[in-house]
Amino acid sequence: FFFELNYIILKSIISQEFKSDTLSSNEINYVSEFLWKTEIIGHYELAVFGNTLYHLPTKTILIFSEEILEKIKLLNKKNINSRDYIRTISNSVAELINRELYSDAIILIDKTKYEILDSYFFEKFIFQFYVDVIIYRLNFEESTKQDVRRRINFLSEINAIAYHMYFKKKFEYFFNESFN
Fold first, then answer.
1. Measuring CA to CA, how many Å separate 155 from each of 33, 126, 161, 166?
2. How far apart are CA 131 and CA 166, in angstroms?
3. Is 179 exposed, middle or buried (0-12, 13-18, 19+ CB in 10 A)?
4. Confidence band for 140, pLDDT divided at 50, 70 and 90
5. What is the DSSP string of 62-96?
6. What pLDDT, in 10s, does the model give residues 99-125?
């Protein structure tokens, strides 16, 4: 059971990295069934979902993201770190944007933003980044893109170099142009 899931995860990662063959419909169904049957979402389930969501049907992404959101609420009530879960939701948002499902992405952002603790700077930043990407894609306002550039450069100014590099890559991907 886990061998098959791990194989599918690995195949999914390779297909994303090298733009090679995608998962078969049987493999997508296998992962979807696993996720639908999940009662308790732990880190393994997050790994399965997060590494295969690019291949999953939109309905599965939306429903499992809602389940993750419920887990985040529970963790926050118990003062347990929920960053990994929030970052997985951010990956769902990114995929919804890739699929040009902007209203679904905004709804998921809106539901999640209240669960991001004030101390989670990076997570707040990435969700704002995705809001800006959506605004830009819908309105094509150059000022939005310039605001994003300023915020990303701010990361460098506060010596958050890894985050700065991460968002430069995200900028280039989502805005389809060089950051510099």
1. 40, 12, 7, 10
2. 17
3. middle
4. confident
5. HHHHHHHHHHHHHHHHTT---HHHHHHHHHHHHHH
6. 999 999 999 999 999 999 888 988 998
Rounded to whole angstroms, the Cα distance separating 180 from 178 reads: 6
Residues in the chain: 180
Residues 64 and 53: their CA atoms lie apart, in Å, by 10
Strands (E), the chain: none
What is the C-alpha separation between 131 and 19, in angstroms, rounded?
27
Other C-beta atoms within 10 Å of 72: how many? 25
* Average pLDDT value for residue range 89-104: 94
Q: Give mean pLDDT, residues 46-70.
A: 91
Q: What is the pLDDT of residue 94?
A: 93
Tokens read off for 77: 């009530």
4: helix, strand or coil: helix
Alpha-carbon radius of gyration of the chain: 17
Question: In angstroms, rounded to a whole number, what is the distance separating the alpha carbons of residues 101 and 49?
Answer: 19
